[in-house]
Amino acid sequence: MADIIRELEKKSNIARQKILKMTTQCEGGHLAGSLSCTDLLVALYFHILNHRPNEPLWEQRDRFILSKGHAAPAFYVLLSMSGYFPDEELFTLRRINSRLQGHPDCKKLPGVEISTGSLGQGFSAAVGMALGYKYENHNGHIFCLLGDGECDEGQVWEAAMFASNYYLKNITAIIDRNGYQIDGPTEKVMKLEPLDKKWESFGWNILEINGHDMKQIVGAFENSRSNRNVIIANTIKGKGVSFLENNNAYHSKPCSSNDCELAIRELNQKLKQI
Amino acid sequence: MENIIKTNMNKSTRDAFGEALVEIGKTNRNLLVMDADLSLSTKTCLFANEFPERFFDAGVAEQNMIGVASGLSKTGKIVIASTLAIFASGRVFEQVRNTLVHSDCDVKIVATHAGISVGKDGSSHQSIEDIALMRVIPGMRVIVPCDALETKKVLEKIIDIHGPFYVRLGRDEVPIITPEDEEFILGKGKVLRNGCDLTMVGCGMMVFEMLKAADILEKKGLQAEVINMPSIKPIDRDLILESCSKTKNVFTCEEHSIIGGLGSAVLETLEETRGIFLKRIGIGDCFGESGLPEELFEKYGLSAHKIVETIEKYLKT
Q1: Is the pTM of this model over 0.95?
Q2: How far, in Å, CA of A144 to CA of A73, rounded?
Q3: Most CB atoms closer than 10 Å: which of A193, B145, B152, B217?
Q4: Of the candidates A118, A127, A158, which has its C-beta nearest B98's C-beta?
């Protein structure tokens, strides 16, 4: 198990480097919120999801929905690292004629289950997929990543209510609790706490973890398959690079070329220590 | 026309929808239905009673209904999502645009209680903008059947066509106008009455009003061609151009704002066509109000003889 965790940690480091490079080179993309959820996505794509990158519509698959569509750079990096499309395509992010739209487009890119980007909506669709799987007695599980700021949306709570009303036990919501939304700290802009109690009162089982501790992440995901769980993953916006961490200036702004080089250097040093 | 009134086969399009759903549900096991706490009004309750395991009520949460319906469809189902038109278009506009249509979900939105014929509930429940809202979404198809028979045919047809649709139905009873053996074809309208002096193009409840208006006009010496245009998007461009180039005068009739609805769609069709006069008959730039449907049709200029009055302003009888 320790080896598996170490491998996943290495993958996270590499994924972060790719996110930094693609967003800097393409001069766009929500960098900090991509780095906060990188570890969660790595665990899903390399250890948890039952999926076939060379057969994206494989009927028996688990499904992942990025409801916080703004973290598209992290999502695209994980899809390409898993083999959904070639690595070099990452550098077409947000460019004309690219399949890698600013926010995920399911009609363009394999591995995207449904188009997202407008907050709150992906989670409803994920609940719909869980309902469809339940109706079919399908064994697959639905994983859906939401931002913490996204929980301001009323639709999130409509969907949360719906999932427990229909006794869905094949869906896991993951909240990337990095503490920030565009206008500032979540507790300053629009109080979310007590977030766990809110979800609990909507009929969800709560798992709270450190969203950068790979052992905790894997443990939570492995325990989440048989119930309607919400994993509140406490994360750090801009995680992995000292000058990006908790720096909301990088919410939707990539690094300059120089800063990107510094960041890559820092990540490479950390990679050696894993 | 007199035959239509004599047969006295009045039925609301929402009733026809509810019954058709049950019929289709018997053979198509892949059909799932959702509603947002209005199944008694939309008539999806008939399906819910017959196939409770295939019916999902979202409660009073329309935005989530659209999202769940979209997700459901992505597991290989055909989903009907139904509620009142005011909520099925306006309240959920962005969910329909960004999730449902953008992802090409196999979800058919069937909206009932459209237009001012909702009556006494007043303007908060009178959807007069929904055709405009749905029509503007890239790739969305918009259908407005004129009677119970056409509603059934529309439903049977669109279930077999992949992708999103918006079907607009009414609350009130309307006479059956369309013949039993006539097929509904997406993108096609139908000439119900031939004429050479003017063309009337309409949809929904207005088709019956147009037919009555054409009778009155005939007595005044004007021969009106009446076109039923259930397929607002895609619209029957050929039929419109053919009729309009013959009559040179077009009057569009809709129980909808004149901004962005059927009239606008016909205007767009006639773009680049010279020498044609067009007047949109519909609800002006204002909200409706409470009242009986026939009183509202009268006040807002949609009744047969109000249509005639408008036409007479522009054409000599």
Answers
A1: yes
A2: 16
A3: B145
A4: A118
If you measure CA to CA, which chain B residue comes closest to A64?
A: B71
Same domain, B167 and B197: no
Preceding omega of B164 cis (within 30 degrees of 0): no
Domain boundary among B175, B201, B216: B175
Q: In this complex, do A105 and B102 lie within 8 Å of one another by their Cβ atoms?
A: yes
Contact at CB, B63 and A113, closer than 8 angstroms: no
Q: How far is A231 from chain B (nearest CA, A)?
A: 21
The tally of domains found in chain A comes to: 1
Whether residue A130 lies within 8 A of chain B, CB to CB, comes out as: yes
> Which positions in chain B touch A117 (Cβ < 8 Å)?
98
pLDDT value of position B9: 81
Catalytic residues of B: 62
In chain A, whose CA is at the least distance from the CA of B34?
Answer: A128
- Residue A143, C-beta contacts closer than 8 angstroms, at least 6 positions apart: A44, A48, A49, A62, A63, A64, A65, A126, A171, A172, A174, A221
Please report, rounded to a whole number, the percentage of residues in chain B having pLDDT higher than 70: 97
* Domain co-membership, B224 together with B116: no
The SS3 of residue A19 is helix
Residue at which a domain ends, from B175, B200, B231: B175
**Scanning the structure block, which residue is given the tokens 């009155």?**
B216
The two tokens of residue A41 are 């996505």
A201 touches chain B (CB under 8 A): no
CB pairs under 8 A between A and B: 110
- ipTM exceeding cut-off 0.90 for this assembly: yes
**Residues of B (62-81) whose Cβ lies below 8 Å from A:** 63-64, 66-77
Q: Which domain holds residue A220?
A: 2-273
CB B189 within 8 A of CB B262: no
- Assign B5 a pLDDT band (cuts: 50, 70, 90): low
What band does B1 get if pLDDT is binned at 50, 70 and 90?
Answer: low
Residues of chain A where predicted confidence (pLDDT) is lower than 50: none
